[in-house]
From TrEMBL:
Residues 96-200 form the HD domain. GO terms for molecular function: hydrolase activity. The lineage of its organism: Bacteria, Bacillati, Actinomycetota, Actinomycetes, Bifidobacteriales. Pfam families: HD. This is Metal dependent phosphohydrolase. Keywords: Hydrolase.
C-alpha cells in the first residue's frame, strides 16, 4: 500500500508495533519498508527504489573488493603494490569498511527524492521532479530519516552524497539552493556510496553511467571536481557495470 505524503509529515511511517529503539540503525528490511511507506506511487517506487538497490549493489561490490585488498596486505611481501591493477583497480584502504552500513546507507541515500517530485507518475503520467529543488533531495532525505528516529550514522548517507561532495564554499560561491554548509562524506562508507551513485542515473529511461561519462559530467563543475573524481577512481577502482546492466535491461552510456 502506498501513501501520498505530499506536504504532510513523514513521521511514523514504520509499523506502530515495532519498538522505536529498533529503528535507530535500520536493517535492509526496514529500509525497504521505508521506501514502501514514503513512495507516493508505484512509478515513483519503481524508479527510486530500483536506483537505490542498484547503488547498494555497486557500493557493496566496491566495499568487498577494497576490504579484500586490506585483508590480503597481511600476507603480501612488504614491496607489494598498494593498488590492484586488475579487477577494476582500487587501493588498500586504511581500515576495513563496514559492509552492512554501506548496504543500508546506499538503500536509503536517495529516500529524499520522493519528497521533491513534481508529478509522481501515477496513472501513466510522466514522472517529473521539481528541478529547482532537486539539489535539496539529500538534505530532505536526511531530515526524513532523522524524523523517523534513524541514527545519524545512517541519515548522513542521504545528506552527503550529492556530486563528489559539496563544500560550504561551493554552496556559497555557486549560490546553490541549499543552506550554507558542508555536504561531504565524513567517513569511507559514505564516500563509497557517493562514488557508486555516479554510476547510475534516474533519468527516464534510467541508465548506467560509464566512468568516462561520469568524468565528463564531473569536469563540467571545474577542475577541482574532476581531480576529486580521479582520486576516487584511483581509490576505489571502476565497477563492472555490464552484469547489472544486463540484469536490469538498461544501457551503459
Amino acid at each position: 500500500m502506498f501513501v501520498n505524503v505530499g506536504q504532510q509529515s513523514v513521521k511514523s511511517h514504520f509499523p506502530a508495533d515495532l519498538p522505536r529503539m529498533v529503528l535507530m540503525v535500520p536493517n535492509v528490511e526496514m529500509a525497504e519498508a521505508l521506501h514502501r511507506k514514503v513512495a507516493p506511487s508505484q512509478a515513483a517506487y519503481d524508479l527510486i527504489h530500483t536506483h537505490c538497490s542498484i547503488i547498494s549493489t555497486i557500493a557493496v561490490g566496491i566495499t568487498d573488493r577494497v576490504n579484500a585488498l586490506f585483508l590480503k596486505q597481511c600476507t603480501l611481501p612488504q614491496d607489494a603494490p598498494e593498488r590492484d591493477p586488475a579487477h577494476g583497480g582500487g587501493s588498500i584502504p586504511p581500515r576495513l569498511l563496514n559492509r552492512d552500513l554501506v548496504q543500508v546507507g546506499a538503500l536509503l541515500h536517495d529516500i529524499g527524492t520522493y519528497l521533491i517530485l513534481k508529478d509522481d507518475g501515477a496513472e501513466g503520467r510522466p514522472l517529473t521532479f521539481q528541478g529547482e529543488r532537486y539539489i535539496q533531495h539529500g538534505l530532505e532525505g536526511y531530515r526524513l530519516l532523522i524524523d523517523e528516529g534513524v541514527d545519524e550514522s545512517v541519515a548522513q548517507f542521504a545528506r552527503n552524497h550529492t556530486g563528489v561532495g559539496l563544500t560550504r564554499r561551493q554552496v556559497e560561491e555557486e549560490h546553490l539552493n541549499l543552506p550554507p554548509d558542508d555536504y561531504v562524506p565524513v567517513n569511507l562508507e559514505q564516500e563509497v556510496v557517493m562514488y557508486a551513485d555516479k554510476f547510475h542515473s534516474k533519468r527516464q529511461p534510467p541508465i548506467f553511467v560509464s566512468e568516462a561519462t561520469a568524468a565528463r559530467r564531473t569536469a563540467k563543475y571545474g577542475p577541482d571536481n574532476l581531480k576529486r573524481w580521479q582520486d576516487l577512481v584511483a581509490k576505489y577502482g571502476v565497477p563492472d557495470l555490464k552484469p547489472l546492466a544486463d540484469h536490469y535491461g538498461m544501457e551503459i552510456v
